[in-house]
Amino acid sequence: MKKTLIPTALGLVASLGLTTAALAEIRLGASISATGPAAFLGDPEAKTLEILVEQLNAAGGIGGENIALVLYDDAGDPNKARTFATRLVEDDEVVAIIGGTTTGTSMSILAVAEDAEIPFISLAGAIDIIDPVKRHTFKTPHTDRMACQKIFEHMQNQGFTGIGLISGTDGFGASMQAQCKDVAGDFGITIVADETYDPKDADMTAQLTKIRNAAGVQAVLNPGFGQGPSIVTRNYRQLDIGLPLYQSHGVASDGFIELAGTDAAEGVRLPGTALLVADLLADDDAQKPVVTAYKAAFEGKTGIPVGTFGGYAHDAFLILTDAIARADAAEPAAIRDAIEATTGLAGTTGIYSFTATDHLGLDLSAFRMLEIKDGKWMLAE
Amino acid sequence: MKLSAKTATLLVLALLVAVTPFFFPSGYYYRVGALIFVNGIAVTGIVILTGYAGQISLGHAGFAGIGAYACALAPVHLGLHPALAVVLGAAISAAMAWLVGRPILRLKGYYLGVATLGFGILVSMVLNNERELTRGPDGIDVPELGLRTVLKDWGLELTNGQFWYFFCGLFLILGAWLALNLYDSPTGRALRALHGSEIAARTVGVDVARMKLQAFVISAVYASVSGSLLALQNKFITPDVAGFMHSIEMVTMAVLGGVGSILGAILGAGILTLLPQVLTVFAEYEQLVLGLVMMLVMIFLREGLLPSILRRLRGTGE
Amino acid sequence: MSELLQFLFSGVTVGAVYALVALGFTIIYNASDVVNFAQGEFVMLGGMITWFAHAAGLPLPLAALIAIAATAALGVAMNKLAIEPARGAPVVSLIIITIGASIFIQGAAQLVFDKQIHSFPAFSGDDPIRIGGATILPQSLWVIGGALATFVGLWVFFTRTLLGRAVLATSNNRLAAQLVGINTNFVMTLSFALSAGIGALAGVLATPITLTSYGVGIGFALKGFAGAMLGGMGNPKGALVGGFAIGLIEAMTAGYLSSQYKDAAAFIMILLVLFFMPQGLFGRKSTDRV
């Protein structure tokens, strides 16, 4: 047995090498939190990538070459994310990475991507991912800072000067809470009450009561994602606080309305992307075709209503494939340059134009202030 | 020449660290190896606490968190070199273990478990909430250790992956050597005695409370160093490192592989670290498989994988 | 005053869920000396199965009943397959087994159901009831009522029925119980079924308030466990009081001190109780045979 072991092993290794060389394909890597505390976001992201890769390959791939997607599930653990990123770079030899559902995982992945000089498009919200700008890291979602600015802009128009803040203690909530506190002053708004809740909590009436009793509160803002905001919204209705409630883009999905209940969700405002109001878009809106196509593909394949998170993955894939098509070669350096040269690319989240100093590519206009009326998304005035 | 258990263990570990890189197809395997060694350090501490002294801790990740964040914060706020930050982290962990251990170790069984659980959760909560200091749940950057560049200046050029693989491997061998020495020492014998029966140990003059505390403090230092090494190699750390799930992971690794033996615990660490990497195709089933493995091994191979396997090989039977 | 009342209502609502989970812990601990870390998963299953059945078209009461029955069956299976075979194993092994069971059930739930968040309609509507300037949801009353009714039912069962007393006898001394003719196997099965059923009931009652998804089990398990410890492990009265106490401590801390550290308050309480009153509020001081 020992005599044949080594030759067999060598043969296997050789054949592996041969097989990978034979297929001309573009290897794309992804590390997404499809399970774990962010599964609610990661699951649609993973499904979106799989659907889009299948779609693209069926249509002939890019320049005749198929896309091979190597998708790993980091379960929201930044340590695992780093290991998978290392695996994608060193073992799977991908030319680009999409992923990082949460900020923590994104920061881990980008460390590896920057070291290996491979382009990485993140799907997480924190501004720290692209500010300061890192050469190979881009991102598709609006930053939490922009969400705050959009919300405060609306509040300022409504004449509010004092608000209450109730945030989840998870990464998204805490980060957005910090950004909002930072920019509130620019819009003449003071935060008079500042409460938090654990994302797994079942009842926030205590915190909301404190906010209601604080003097000078004219509206309430809830940065968070997952089930927390739904419970906050229901508690809000239960306590009959009566002041306008603003949510974050972390709950921009139909699932939120369903969980909070149409009654409680009535009148809630949040900054959403075109994806949620696809039917309300003007026919000449640049985003309408992209949004409608994605909505049809995703809902058709999975039966789950679209949400912005899947949209982030869609846009990342769009940016990447668009760049690969334009690049001189399907090599990391060329792809990176092509991504940075992207202008006016319409995605579901907004219209992207990257520059050497702007790896987000979006401005506030891509965000639309939405309001929930009768259980449906409407554009807020 | 019959090898003592101690020499055999150290030899196996040294061989593992030195020889396996020859089989690595790519740099990624160095990363996995380094992670296994880091986890191995933590579980060696658990072996001392749970295997030798028979005390349960469901909150040891709290010490890993202290070690990790010491490396993130001390260089920035105190101007310490990251290597010294590791020592600082270990010192703080030891101090905390000493403070918390004295009242906690009076408890036994599930009560001890829940008390340590509470401690671990409190540490992770502080790390999570004190955003001003720790940057909160999104995590914080950890400064570069700098040892790799020093080695490069001396002529030894290693990739990042290679450096951390051997560096952590070295720490693991050192930690195992210390733990094995402890086993044979009077302290170790006292620990094993009180594991068997606290009352009996007391009657022969063992200062049970003090011994338990020593084991707790020592294992806390192991966890702290493990956390520090993780933070330094990732150059980034989040409060999850101190979380409840990480504590459970540490205990599971040790118990799965065999909490009575260091090699066994390291085997457990290896298996659980490799599991998500191996199951990537079946990522959907990972939790299912993990839960199943945990239950099956504990029911059928009660002492853990390594002791059971060794028993089979020796042919002595049950 | 109305503020305090609101905090009270908040604390009592979540406290009731914790109390039910703690009761479940207590029953299994009494029967088999095992702390079942998978208790929280029974709560999750109660909620998820009800949602699943209801979404498939079944009327809510029937869906709830199916959920409770199915979970009780799962509890029995868990005992037969995971706990019984490991009798006599050291505490740390038992902890790993039940945590393994918890992870296994979560993994299965992800596959059988999905990873999204779900809920179902409240039993008697969503209109809050106004008392003294504070509001409470009708569903909260269901949860609190459920916890109290379960406790009373268990009390009657354990003290007034022969079967209940057989359960107590078995938990006291298994061998002696067998010697007087008690079918201890049946008693064990019953205990696990009861405990799982109570957990599922908690899930069914609480989901309209707390929402449910495959990962909610751990949170309930930790808090419920803390409550059972606080009240004295093994004492049903302690479980009830402990569970409500944890809920109230949380709400009061969130209301008057810091919402960020409200979970910490509960755990600090536990640590204090364990240091100064190690057997819990209602536990008996135990003596060990040497």
What is the arithmetic mean of pLDDT of chain B? Answer: 90
Q: In the residues of chain A, how many domains can be counted? A: 2
Which strand order spans the largest sheet of chain B, edge to edge or round the barrel? 1-2
CATH architecture of the largest domain in chain A: 3-Layer(aba) Sandwich
Binned strand content of chain A: 15-25%
Structural class of chain A: alpha/beta
Give the number of helices of chain A.
13
**Could you tell me how far the N terminus lies from the C terminus of chain A, measured between alpha carbons in angstroms?**
78 Å
* Helical content class of chain B: over 70%
Mean pLDDT of chain A: 88
Number of strands of chain A: 14
Give me the oligomer status. Answer: heterotrimer
Radius of gyration of chain B: 19 Å
Number of strands of chain B: 2
**Helix content, binned percent of chain A:** 40-55%
Name the CATH class of the largest domain in chain A.
Answer: Alpha Beta
- Coarse morphology of chain A: globular
> What's the order of the H and E elements of chain B?
HHHHHHEHHHHHEHHHH
SSE sequence of chain A, one letter per element:
HEHEHEHEEHEHEHEHEHHEHHHEEEE
Verbal overview:
- Chain A has 381 residues and is an alpha/beta fold.
- Chain A has helices at 2-22, 39-58, 78-91, 103-116, 144-158, 171-183, 205-213, 227-238, 254-260, 262-265, 288-302, 308-326, 332-340, and strands at 25-32, 66-73, 96-99, 120-122, 137-139, 162-168, 190-197, 219-222, 245-247, 269-272, 345-346, 351-352, 368-373, 376-379.
- In chain A, the strands form four sheets. Chain A has a five-stranded parallel sheet with strand order 2-1-3-4-5, with helices on both faces.
- In chain A, helix 3 packs parallel to helix 4.
- Mean pLDDT of chain A is 88; it is low at 11-22.
- Chain B has a domain at 27-244.
- Helix content of chain B is 75%, strand content 1%.
- Chain B contains 15 helices and two strands.
- Chain B has helices at 5-19, 28-52, 61-77, 82-104, 109-129, 131-134, 147-153, 160-184, 186-196, 198-203, 208-234, 244-257, 262-278, 286-300, 305-314, and strands at 140-141, 236-237.
- Chain B has a two-stranded antiparallel ribbon with strand order 1-2.
- Chain C has a single domain (2-276), classed as ABC transporter involved in vitamin B12 uptake, BtuC (Orthogonal Bundle).
- Chain C has eleven helices and two strands; from the N terminus they run H-H-H-H-E-E-H-H-H-H-H-H-H.
- Chain C has helices at residues 2-32, 39-55, 60-83, 91-112, 138-160, 162-172, 174-179, 184-210, 217-231, 236-257, 262-276, and strands at 129-131, 134-136.
- In chain C, helix 1 (2-32) crosses helix 9, helix 3 packs across helix 8 (184-210) and helix 9 (217-231) packs across helix 10 (236-257).
- The mean pLDDT of chain C is 88.
- The chains are: A alpha/beta (381), B mainly alpha (318), C mainly alpha (290).
